[in-house]
Write a structure and sequence with these properties.
homodimer; 404 residues; alpha+beta; Beta-Lactamase; 3 domains; 5-stranded antiparallel beta sheet; 4-stranded antiparallel beta sheet; 14 helices; 53% helix; 13% strand
């Protein structure tokens, strides 16, 4: 018998219920009332849906419920619940950010009970609101109100058996949000649904809580580095805000290159830290208003290596180090300290190089004229392919020209 | 009927199976074979164990299994599985570090199948090995070998029906460890046990993976701050390593006060950052080998406020700021900048103050004699209650005296 889900279903002599959580899954569901068994083969991720389908088929095939049938159905339900929870763990593992994780949880919740639409709310700082399969504004505000209520009261509720709401609670840390689902496509909510959703919500809450801890730490980390770097930049009034502008412009280039999520965060960090080696430079160089002596220039040119020396003992920073060490290399190999050329130069370093040079050109300097934004953009264009990676220079000029 | 688990069990006329996941839980288990129902009231966390006990009672009471009884038992199993997974989420929520989380997972795994002992292994950097209820070295090495094998092969295995091993796998990121359980107290492993343990292992893997991401970020954060602070300290050869020593000594005091886990991490960060305001001091002050002028002293004395000014824009740093701003306050109210006294001074600041002053005394200074460790400890003792919180000064002197 073919189903509308692309599964193969065969009816066999009665045997036990089986379920295998392999990527290519196989489930066997008893319908003992008819001495039948359905064997299902297909993608494991859709197994919960299919098990439900089979059960519904059984219900349609004969309404004469007897105790044995209802017991069997309950067993299928229970197996389905484990399969649903397993499936949610897979989805959560694939999701890379809180929005994707909210989607994974809500999708699983909807499928698990066959609800028509849902809403997931994370309250507090970093508030997140996610709707799935909702069509009207009215539906959305009703679900949001229910999710808020569950989050506020910290307990589950069923509204007229048609809507269901669950708090997202973490033991010791309280309620961090709520989950609300619209009416089921068939039947009304039963206590079994509540139990499954409570377990599902408990895991979701743990994940969102752990996401939040991570994000809080990340914000603290980036803020601390940004503030320290800014204080170093500000020792020379002419470089005030330099590293932060380089971060912003580097990110702008990266977004155009499709660098996002965690990789983009790494680039931001690299950009903030690119001049960290300047901590070691004496005030006499930083505040020099006239020409630097050759010895002083030599010291200035050592800041990429000094940055490497400062940062290389740090754990988990290996992907950032080349950006610090190579941001004064040139695409034509005439840069310093190593004379690397072309794509041998670290990608982050090639991005930062453009943003860094542009910012340096537009800063007030005593040893060369200050450029207007237009002059500096012309300079970047003219040095594309020699000083700069033409790809990075092109994106930068295009984006910055578009802005003005 | 009283059980050996401190639960009250009453036999009632037959009804449906019920389970309530309240802190004070209640479960009702059918034993239809005898027209009986057991109602259980007791702590929710032990409910899975008790449900198992009841089931086992039923088995003992009559060995005449019929289909209805076995189906009912299967339903109880399935309910138990949800209850077990719910219970694990509660335990994970209460656990504060990876060791505690490993314990929570292993404890749940053992209880869920009634296994005699187990082992949880997280491989790679930050390797973690956790045993529960194992008695002999032989037992431990057998379990460890199984957990390693499951982690290596990335799939579950049952060894001679007596041992079971599960990989800890996160979709898209691969296998990060393994879980191995010894023989069941009753019977051998069944496919239902495998399914439950697979789901349990999937969630455990997600949590350990997210823990690892957090720890990696934390190590990167602390390493970066430490390196930057060290580079600032090193501008004056006499203060090289100062902030790192203050961190270490502050942590030593904190441990004695029972400050641990996340709170201890916050203190470490505060100690590393206590002198961050010195970024703004000119080299002429940092490298001064003679007496500072009154104007220069005034600048030096502003470093707590400068630290506050640098750090206050940072997110999630509110608990650290007072430590930066108040580490030069004195217990007797004669410190700067605000003249706060006693326990009005932030706890972290009172801890850091002792560690900071001790380190300053033992550093080479031109404007006062360098103290030996013993002289500096005497100085701390003599200024206990005036400059220093006597509690902090006492712990510091005691610990440092004990060390030598």
């Amino acid at each position: 018998m073919a189903s509308n889900l692309g599964f193969e279903i065969r009816l066999l002599p009665l045997a036990r219920v089986k379920y295998t959580a392999e990527p290519e899954g196989a489930a066997t569901v008893d319908i003992p009332e008819f001495g039948l068994q359905a064997e299902i083969i297909g993608p494991a991720e859709q197994m919960p849906q299919v098990s439900r389908l089979i059960r519904e088929l059984a219900v349609e095939m004969g309404q004469q419920e007897n105790e044995s049938l209802s017991l069997t159905r309950e067993i299928v339900d229970r197996y389905e619940q484990l399969a649903i929870l397993f499936e949610m763990s897979e989805r959560l593992g694939r999701a890379e950010d809180p929005g994707a994780r909210a989607g994974a949880v809500l999708e699983t919740a909807l499928e698990s009970v066959g609800a028509s639409g849902g809403c997931l709310l994370l309250s507090g700082p970093g508030r997140l609101l996610y709707f799935l399969k909702t069509e009207t504004e009215e539906e959305r505000s009703q679900l949001l109100a229910l999710a808020e209520k569950a989050g506020h009261l910290g307990r589950a509720s069923v509204e007229e058996r048609s809507h269901i709401a669950m708090p997202l609670t973490v033991s010791n840390r309280g309620t961090i949000g709520g989950l609300a689902l619209g009416p089921k496509e068939r039947g009304s909510y039963r206590s079994g649904d509540l139990k499954l959703l409570a377990t599902l919500a408990a895991y979701a809450a743990l994940f969102f809580d752990s996401d939040r801890l991570y994000q809080d730490l990340e914000a603290l980390f980036f803020g601390t580095v940004r503030s320290m770097v800014e204080a170093i930049d500000a020792k020379d009034p002419r470089t005030r805000g330099h590293s932060e502008r380089v971060r912003k412009h580097s990110l702008m280039i990266a977004q155009e290159l499709g660098i996002e999520g965690r990789a983009a965060k790494r680039l931001e960090l690299a950009a903030l830290l690119h001049d960290v080696g300047k901590i070691g430079l004496p005030d006499s160089i930083l505040n020099n208003r006239g020409d630097l002596s050759p010895q002083q220039w030599e010291l200035v040119r050592q800041h990429p290596q000094m940055g490497l020396a400062i940062m290389s003992p740090v754990a988990n920073i290996d992907d950032i180090l080349p950006a610090i060490g190579e941001h004064h290399e040139r695409y034509d190999g005439q840069g310093y300290p190593s004379g690397k050329a072309g794509e041998d130069i670290n990608l982050f370093a090639r991005i930062i190089s453009v943003a860094d040079a542009f910012d340096a050109m537009t800063m007030e300097r005593t040893y060369r004229p200050t450029f207007t934004k237009e002059q500096a953009l012309r300079e970047v264009r003219e040095n594309s392919g020699s000083q700069f990676d033409p790809g990075m220079a092109g994106i930068f000029c295009q984006k910055l020209t578009a802005k003005s």
